[in-house]
TrEMBL record:
A GO biological process held by the record: regulation of DNA-templated transcription
Gene3D superfamilies the record matches: 1.10.8.60, Homeodomain-like, P-loop containing nucleotide triphosphate hydrolases
Pfam families: AAA_lid_14, HTH_8, Sigma54_activat
GO MF assignments: ATP binding; sequence-specific DNA binding
UniProt entry keywords in alphabetical sequence: ATP-binding, Nucleotide-binding, Transcription, Transcription regulation
Keyword Zinc: no
Species lineage: unclassified sequences, metagenomes, ecological metagenomes
Matches recorded under InterPro entries: AAA_lid_NorR, Homeodomain-like_sf, HTH_Fis, P-loop_NTPase, Sigma_54_int, Sigma_54_int_dom_CS
Annotated protein name in UniProt: Sigma-54 factor interaction domain-containing protein
Domain Sigma-54 factor interaction: 1-155
Length: 236
């Protein structure tokens, strides 16, 4: 498709993926006009490169993913029924993280090691109390939300093990406490406005990545442009 700065000699994704597999993430969020273009490519196996009037034949296998119910989007006139039947093929449904709570401790351990290695943190684990709280949380954003939560905790933590006090307020305040679990919210964060917490998280992450904005954005789970805008907004 067209994009700012597009050039005639630059191939699109379908041309680059010819004879291969193209993964389309969150296809349920695709605009209707883009859905129409995608449908034409799937049906005809032909694309017209930007700046050209010549057709290019492509042979691409498509794998798509979404966290939405496409049939509901069809009823709401937000997703094309004809495209739905074209991409339906073999469906693989992944359970929500809340339905696989037994996997959360293992995921937490993996994400801690990954985040600590990225920022050079001394964090090596998590306390049982903190792990219990995270395991009991419903995680509406699934694994991505858990990953970003652990990254934030690791960045903000100045001791060896993540504890209840390190859990972000928006998660700590919504948790369902297990019997005997300490009822306390992140030390130094309780009472702060969300923008103050965000500013502190960005400041700490930039410090730990030694000013590497690309790395900081990845750890924070946001785009580089968003990070640049936040840095300017908070005058960091």
């Amino acid at each position: 498709g067209a994009f700012t700065g597009a050039a005639n000699d630059r191939k699109g994704l379908f041309e680059l993926t010819d004879k291969g597999t193209l993964f389309l993430d969150e296809i349920g969020d695709m605009a209707m006009n883009c859905q129409a273009k995608l449908l034409r490519v799937i049906e005809d196996g032909i694309v017209i490169p930007v700046g050209s009037n010549k057709q290019t034949v492509v042979d691409v296998r498509i794998i798509s993913a979404t966290n939405q119910i496409l049939t509901t989007l069809i009823e709401e006139k937000k997703f094309r029924q004809d495209l739905y039947f074209r991409i339906k093929g073999v469906n693989i449904s992944l359970p929500a993280l809340r339905d696989r709570a037994e996997d959360i401790p293992e995921l937490i351990d993996y994400f801690i090691k990954e985040a600590a290695a990225e920022v050079g943190s001394k964090v090596t684990g998590i306390t049982d109390a903190a792990q219990t709280i995270l395991s009991n949380f419903d995680w509406p954003g699934n694994i991505r939300q858990l990953l970003n939560c652990i990254r934030t905790m690791v960045v903000m933590c100045d001791h060896n093990k993540l504890d209840v006090a390190d859990i972000p307020p928006e998660i700590a305040q919504r948790r369902q406490l297990a019997p005997g679990t300490p009822d306390r919210i992140g030390t130094g964060l309780a009472g702060l406005q969300l923008n103050e917490i965000e500013k502190q998280a960005i400041t700490d992450t930039l410090a730990k990545t030694k000013g590497n904005r690309e790395k900081a954005a990845k750890i924070l789970g946001i785009g580089e442009r968003t990070l640049y805008r936040k840095i300017k907004e908070y005058n960091l």
